[in-house]
């Protein structure tokens, strides 16, 4: 059934409401164009991503980083390309 709900001036199809928030967020990100994001927001996002990457690499020498990476690795499946962290040994 394709019922439609109205919230103010916005029309939301029923199937949208039933999707997981992660699915809705992924759809939003997928459909978003860089031109739709203000330049100052893109610039700030670049700085924050560089900052997070630098912190991740710099903290890799500390014991807490090893514990955190071990915990995170236990949450997901194996992959061939790391986002952050050392390359996994070849199987």
* Total E-strand runs: 2
**Helix- and strand-based class?**
mainly alpha
* Overall form: flat
* Assembly context of the chains: single chain
Helix-strand string: EEHHHH
CA-atom Rg in angstroms: 20 Å
User: Helical content, roughly?
Assistant: 40-55%
Number of helices: 4
Classify the beta-strand content into a percent band. Answer: 5-15%
Task: State the end-to-end CA separation.
Answer: 48 Å
Runs in which pLDDT lies below 50 for 5 or more consecutive residues are 1-7
Mean pLDDT: 77
Tell me what you see in this structure.
This protein has helices at residues 14-18, 21-31, 39-58, 63-75, and strands at 4-7, 10-13. It is mainly alpha-helical and 91 residues long. It has one domain (8-73). The chain has a two-stranded antiparallel ribbon with strand order 1-2. A hairpin with a 2-residue loop joins strand 1 and strand 2. The chain is flat and about 45 Å long.
Secondary-structure blueprint of this entry?
Blueprint: E1 4-7, E2 10-13, H1 14-18, H2 21-31, H3 39-58, H4 63-75
Antiparallel strand pairs: 1-2
Describe what is shown at a glance.
The chain has 91 residues and is mainly alpha-helical.
Features:
2 strands, 9% strand, 91 residues, single chain
């Amino acid at each position: 059934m394709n019922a439609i709900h109205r919230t103010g001036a916005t029309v939301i199809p029923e199937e949208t409401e039933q999707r997981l928030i992660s699915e809705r967020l992924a759809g939003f990100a997928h459909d978003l164009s860089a031109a739709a994001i203000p330049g100052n927001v893109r610039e700030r996002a670049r700085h924050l991503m560089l900052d997070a990457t630098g912190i991740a690499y710099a903290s890799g020498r500390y014991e807490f980083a090893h514990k955190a990476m071990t915990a995170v690795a236990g949450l997901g499946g194996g992959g061939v390309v790391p986002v952050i962290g050392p390359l996994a040994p070849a199987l």
